[in-house]
From TrEMBL:
Top-level lineage group: Bacteria
Protein residues bound to ATP: P32, N33, G34, S35, G36, K37, S38, N39
Source organism: Dehalobacter restrictus (strain DSM 9455 / PER-K23)
Whole sequence portion shown: 9 to 207 of 1197
Taxon lineage: Bacteria, Bacillati, Bacillota, Clostridia, Eubacteriales
Assembly with partners or alone: Homodimer.
Record protein name field: Chromosome partition protein Smc
Coiled-coil features, chain-numbered ranges: 167-199
Free-text domain note: Contains large globular domains required for ATP hydrolysis at each terminus and a third globular domain forming a flexible hinge near the middle of the molecule. These domains are separated by coiled-coil structures.
Recorded family membership: Belongs to the SMC family.
Its biological purpose: Required for chromosome condensation and partitioning.
Subcellular location: Cytoplasm
């Protein structure tokens, strides 16, 4: 799966529209402390559905919106898009390129898009589950992450390998099916009660 470019606007330190082009293979982001390197990695994880403000180094999701600097006023919206090459058809979509977008406004309202069409977070997660490149798929290795992987407990490491191998999707489907089964069981119980009352 090849990420061709990252488009960032109003996200953390990126007040202006910024485009980062990537080449096939490994990309390394370098720069002085505080220049926004980790913010790029945060942006990528954010689009892929990161829901924890804390893991994005904030306290609430709106903290990702550019909050102003000595020379710039704050902005009202953060938007990040990832442009993927889909020539290989890894995403089951009939497009050569796939753009995933996430947006958040100051009032906390958020939106997701696949090729500029509004969608649910779940649609994006499903798209990535099989590719091994989800938000936990270790396409992004941040500072300290390597040590963290080495220190994982065996069951945690297993989950990681399952995601990369494309098994997580089935685990998710199983969980959903079990939940539906439980809902249905409760409905049946309720119906039995009603029938007993009527009889
Ligand atoms: P280091 O090497 O120290 O980890 P880094 O290059 O990874 O640095 P980041 O942590 O990505 O740097 O960027 C931090 C900068 O981003 C800080 O200057 C911080 O003020 C700025 N920043 C973070 N969130 C926002 C925001 N919502 N609005 C404006 N600036 C922000």
């Amino acid at each position: 799966l090849f990420l061709k470019s990252i488009h960032i606007q109003g996200f953390k330190s990126f007040a202006d529209k910024t485009k980062i082009d990537l080449q096939p293979g490994m990309s390394v982001i370098i720069g002085p402390n505080g220049s926004g390197k980790s913010n790029v990695a945060d942006a990528v994880r954010w689009v892929l559905g990161e829901q924890s403000a804390k893991s994005l180094r904030g306290s609430k999701m709106e903290d990702v919106i550019f909050s102003g600097s000595s020379s710039r006023r704050p902005v009202g919206m953060a938007e990040v898009s990832l442009l993927f090459d889909n020539a290989s058809g890894l995403f089951p979509l009939d497009y050569e390129e796939v753009v995933i977008t996430r947006r958040v406004y100051r009032d906390g309202e958020g939106q997701y898009f696949i090729n500029r069409t509004p969608c649910r977070l779940k649609d994006i997660q499903e798209l990535f589950l099989d590719t091994g490149s989800g938000k936990e798929g270790f396409s992004i290795i941040g500072q300290g992450r390597i040590e963290e992987i080495l220190n994982l407990k065996s069951d945690e490491r297993r989950l990681l390998i399952e995601e990369v191998a494309g098994i997580s999707k089935f685990r998710l489907r199983k969980r959903e099916a079990l939940r539906k089964l439980e809902d249905t069981r409760q409905n049946v119980d309720r119906l039995s009660d009603i029938i007993a009352e009527v009889e």
